[in-house]
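User: I've been trying to design a sequence by hand for this structure and keep getting stuck. Would you show me what you'd pick, starting by listing the structure so we're on the same page?

Assistant: Good idea, let's start from the same input. This is the structure you sent:
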């Protein structure tokens, strides 16, 4: 396999190693010999725990996309996980999928990316999450090495910083309604899409469909899915927020 890697003409395929867990067993191979592993299905290479006095805040988020819990190590990682869960192009997500090992010319280094993402196209994406003001030289070097490894095997690499706060606050709210059960009954879904074929305020449109207590969870689920639209960056969602069906132009009047 190493001979085949060299035939590709990219020394990164042998310079980097991937160290991962699968079915409880540890594996460590050259990048060129392991990049086709379905990393969306592997186990995290380190545990998610939070100890008093530590700067991180770890936990588990239930992903509607994966239909399982996915770990995170900070609120910022949790927010990125929510955004990935809402992205219609994302089909699978795993956290801390592997250790990437390399030598920087002076010493051995390793880095565990935050997320491995499988897209609807089959493409793989590695996501590392860190706020710009928390970046140091070591982190920048680790991200650059990870991007280099991704480039060698045709994976996308994304460095994700802090999301826009108002937009993120709205998406966190909608995430409460991400589960499929919030989209039932189907008759309410159809009626909401019909009512909001012309832009209306969230509150008034919900009332046209029926009892708001029953209608609003379905409405928020459709906003989570993107089948209904609202300006999630312009202000926090409220009763007067303008809502319209996907594919319709927002009313400007």
């Amino acid at each position: 396999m190493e001979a085949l890697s060299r035939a590709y003409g990219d020394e990164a395929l042998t310079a980097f190693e991937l160290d991962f867990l699968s079915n409880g067993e540890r594996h460590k191979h050259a990048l060129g010999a392991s990049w086709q592993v379905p990393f969306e299905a592997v186990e995290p290479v380190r545990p998610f725990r939070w100890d008093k006095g530590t700067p991180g805040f770890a936990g588990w988020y239930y992903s509607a996309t994966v239909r399982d819990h996915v770990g995170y190590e900070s609120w910022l990682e949790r927010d990125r996980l929510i955004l990935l869960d809402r992205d219609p192009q994302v089909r699978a997500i795993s956290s801390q999928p592997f250790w990437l090992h390399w030598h920087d010319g002076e010493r051995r280094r390793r880095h565990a990316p935050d997320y491995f993402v499988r897209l609807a196209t089959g493409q793989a994406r590695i996501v590392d999450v860190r706020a710009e003001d928390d970046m140091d030289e070591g982190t920048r070097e680790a991200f650059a090495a990870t991007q280099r490894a991704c480039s060698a095997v045709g994976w996308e690499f994304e460095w994700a910083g802090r999301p826009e706060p108002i937009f993120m606050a709205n998406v966190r709210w909608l995430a409460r309604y991400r589960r499929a059960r919030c989209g039932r009954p189907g008759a309410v879904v159809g009626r909401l899409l019909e009512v909001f074929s012309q832009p209306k305020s969230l509150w008034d449109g919900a009332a046209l469909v029926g009892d708001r207590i029953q209608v609003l969870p379905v409405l928020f689920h459709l906003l989570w899915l993107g089948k209904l639209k609202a300006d999630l960056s312009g202000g926090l969602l409220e009763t007067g927020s303008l809502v319209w069906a996907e594919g319709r132009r927002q009313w400007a009047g």
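That's my pick for every position. To get oriented when you compare it with your attempt: The first strand starts at residue 17 and ends at 22. Residues 118 and 124 are 5 Å apart (CA to CA).
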